[in-house]
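Can't paste images in this forum, so I'm doing it all in text. The chain is below; anyone willing to post the predicted structure tokens underneath?
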Amino acid sequence: MAVLNHTIAAARDADATALFYADVLGLEPPVRLGHFAVVKVSSDGGTIDFVSTDGDIDQIHYAFLVTESEFDDIFERIQQRGLVYWADPGRSEAGVVNAWDDGRGLYFDDPNGHLLEIITRPYGSGGTDAEHPHPLLAPTIEPDS
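Text version of the structure:
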């Protein structure tokens, strides 16, 4: 199985953005690697490598699977910073935490408009029997007869 080692994300200020991720998500302090500000985001060493740009920034979505206690800690830091958060990626339910898959999840923006998500249950893990099934979950796909 291939493991994602790193991805590169554009930022207005790579250092400030890396510090934002480390602080809000409770991660190790970022390190400099050439012109990248590198944040380790997974236990297997995967990183987001931020690079500063003056050009257009295309929005990227990053979803982080966290434990219940990590969710509480991150959510507290989001609130302390006064960040707007939403229950949905369309940003239509502000100030709401979703209960999809009978877990908790929310979305918020980084300083560059990248959409961050924290979830306590992977998409679809609650199945169709969950009290709050994930809205993307559809019935099982059946083969054509």
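Strands lie at 6-11, 31-33, 36-40, 47-52, 61-65, 85-86, 105-109, 115-119. The chain has two domains: 1-54, 59-138.
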